[in-house]
Amino acid sequence: MMRRLQFFGTLVAAFVLAAGMAHAQGDPKHGEKVFEKCRACHAADGAANEVGPGLGGVFGRRAGERDDFRYSPALKRSGITWTPQTMNDFIADPQKMVPANRMPFDGLPDARDRNDLIIYMLQVFK
Amino acid sequence: MANKMKEVDAVIVGLGWTGGILAKELTEAGLKVVALERGGMRSTANDYSVPQVRDELRYVQRHDLMQNTAKDTLTIRNNPSQEALPMRRLGSFLPGEAVGGSGVHWSGHTWRWTDMEFKVRSLYEDRYGKDYIPADMTIQDWGITYAELEPYYDKFEYMAGVSGKAGNIRGQIQPGGNPFEAPRARDYPLPPLSTVLASQMFSEAAKNHGYHPFPRPSANASRAYTNPDGARFGACQYCGFCQRFGCEANAKGSPHITVIPIAMRNPNFELRTHAWVTKVLMDSSGKRVTGVTYTNVLNGEEFEQPAAMVLLCAYAINNVHLMLLSGIGQPYDPVTQKGIIGKNYCYQTGAGANLFFEGRNFNPFISAGGTNATIDDFNLNWDFDRGKHGFVGGYTIGSGFNSALPIGYRPVPRGTPSWGKEWKAATAKWYQTAMNIGSSGSVMANRYNYYDLDPTYRNAFGLPLMRMTFDYKENEHKIGRHAAELINDIAKSMNPTTFTPATARTEPWTVVPYQSTHNTGGTIMGTNPKNSAVNKYLQSWDCHNLFLIGANVFVHNAANNPTGPVGALAYWTADAIKNRYMKNPGPLVSA
Question: ipTM score here?
Answer without folding.
Answer: 0.80
